[in-house]
Write a structure and sequence with these properties.
This protein has about 325 residues and is of the alpha+beta class. Helix content is about 15%, strand content about 25%. It has a single domain, classed as Jelly Rolls (Sandwich), CATH 2.60.120.1360. The longest helix has 16 residues.
Length: about 325
């Protein structure tokens, strides 16, 4: 185990160059294809790729007979940051193509976009005794969350994985064969391919300790993608200094049922594991309504700085010795 291509990439990313190439070069442009393309980019970034070899149709339409974008092209990835009128979903908070580009070839020390996407590999449900014994039904895909310098702290009970397509082909009689409660528009919404729903009052997140341990980061923008599935509020908790005093941010749900993005005002975050179970950030919900369904927690550090202590100049000035006669 742990010797497949994805496991090797996880082990040696940032040491050896990594290149990805999509399995298909000719996107169709429909809703389900845009969802597939969105998650493909997340997978590539999660693998710390240095570059991705894609054809023009991945970015623009129409193209000519040689798959070269015509002039002027329509940038198809703009649909990611555009609110979807069919689903009511909020668009991605920044220009998606720019967000991809600023992360290619970066390391933990140089990347200013830290995020985690809550998901799980879909099991292959067609029985196969040899395969199922070898890998317990998970023989393809990236296991666990997409952890891009932030990870979820294990809790009991663990958040519930929600997915519309668990490794099998939908049919007319069974169009959504997997666990979809609470996922809005599983085909039309780009975010609804995977998500996780909290099963306890607290869910903790740890910022990568190798670079940011004990650092106080100023001017941080915190973002969270969640389903607006209940009119009750929940909270994001963080600390701003080594004292560990919890600082709450209120997520004001309205119950629209669509995906929403929360974006904080610039804040100061102390990445010192000061919250319960060594967390840097927590999601907290103690109400009696529907528990939060989450897609991505994201720290945007592009404008962040690390406060430094300015040394104080000495207040005493040396005096010249008083001359004396000898």
């Amino acid at each position: 185990m742990d010797c497949g291509s994805l496991e090797l990439i996880k082990r040696y990313a940032e040491i050896l160059p990594v290149k990805f190439e999509p399995v298909t070069g000719f996107p169709s442009g429909n809703n389900s294809e845009l969802q597939w393309r969105y998650w493909s980019w997340l997978l590539a970034l999660n693998a710390r790729v240095d570059f991705v070899d894609v054809q023009d149709p991945w970015f623009c339409s129409p193209t000519d007979g040689n798959d070269i974008c015509t002039t002027p092209p329509t940038l198809t990835l703009n649909a990611v940051q555009t609110p979807n009128p069919a689903t009511g979903d909020a668009g991605f908070p920044v220009h998606f193509s720019d967000w991809i580009e600023r992360q290619l070839g970066k390391t933990a020390a140089t990347n200013d976009q830290l995020w985690v996407v809550l998901r799980e590999t879909d099991p292959i449900v067609t029985p196969n005794p040899t395969r199922d014994t070898y890998c317990n039904g998970f023989c393809s895909g990236w296991p666990g969350d997409f952890e891009h310098y932030i990870k979820v702290i294990a809790t009991s009970p663990a958040p519930l994985h929600l997915s519309a397509f668990c490794g099998i082909t939908p049919t007319a009689s069974n169009p959504l064969p997997c666990n979809t409660p609470g996922l809005p528009f599983p085909v039309a919404s780009i975010y609804s391919r995977h998500a996780k729903q909290m099963q306890s009052a607290l869910l903790g997140f740890d910022v990568v300790d190798t670079v940011h341990a004990g650092r106080q980061l100023s001017n941080v923008t915190l973002r969270l993608a969640y389903v607006d599935n209940d009119p009750s509020d929940f909270y994001i908790i963080y600390t701003s200094d080594a004292d560990g005093t919890p600082q709450p941010l209120t997520i004001n749900r309205q119950g629209t049922g669509a995906w929403r993005w929360y974006t904080s005002a610039p804040l100061t975050l102390f990445a010192g594991n000061r919250l319960d179970n060594g967390a840097d950030i927590q999601i907290k919900y103690t109400g009696s309504g529907a528990k939060p369904i989450l897609h991505m927690l994201w720290l945007d550090l592009r404008n962040a700085g690390t406060p430094t202590v300015t040394p104080t100049a000495p207040t005493n000035t040396p005096t010249a010795p008083t001359p004396t006669r000898t």
